[in-house]
Design goal:
Oligomer: single chain
Number of helices: 0
Protein name: Outer membrane protein beta-barrel domain-containing protein
Low-confidence stretches: none
Structural class: mainly beta
Number of strands: 9
Strand content: over 45%
Order of helices and strands: EEEEEEEEE
Length: 115
């Protein structure tokens, strides 16, 4: 009950100054926290929101078939927690349906820095 004292605050933010790198679906991502709901009580911060990202993943296709680019923009959403300047993130990204695979959500994990 002490965690929810008068010194804590919840608000909507557009950008929180956090950059994260991590792993999802046999590839990597680099993102920053976008529009989100922010709960903070010094020195802790928790954000739930959108994650504008660059995903880095090599496409595995049959020989001769066209490949997707290895670096693609993506939008995920998820939970980011920060203690002072260290951030830990659990993002969710959607891979759309293709001719050979169904669409699915993928959970990742990331570590970053809060400015």
């Amino acid at each position: 009950m002490f965690f929810f004292s008068a010194k804590s605050q919840t608000k909507a933010v557009l950008f929180d100054g956090t950059i994260v790198a991590g792993y999802v679906d046999h590839g990597a991502f680099i993102n920053c926290t976008g529009p989100s709901i922010k709960f903070s009580k010094k020195p802790y911060t928790v954000l739930l929101g959108l994650l504008p990202s660059l995903r880095i993943k090599e496409d595995k296709v049959a020989a001769g078939a066209p490949k997707n680019a290895a670096l693609t923009p993506n939008l995920g959403f998820g939970l980011t927690t920060a203690f002072r300047h260290v951030a830990l993130q659990v993002p969710l990204y959607y891979n759309p349906k293709t001719a050979v695979k169904n669409g699915e959500w993928n959970v990742g994990v990331g570590l970053g820095y809060k400015f």
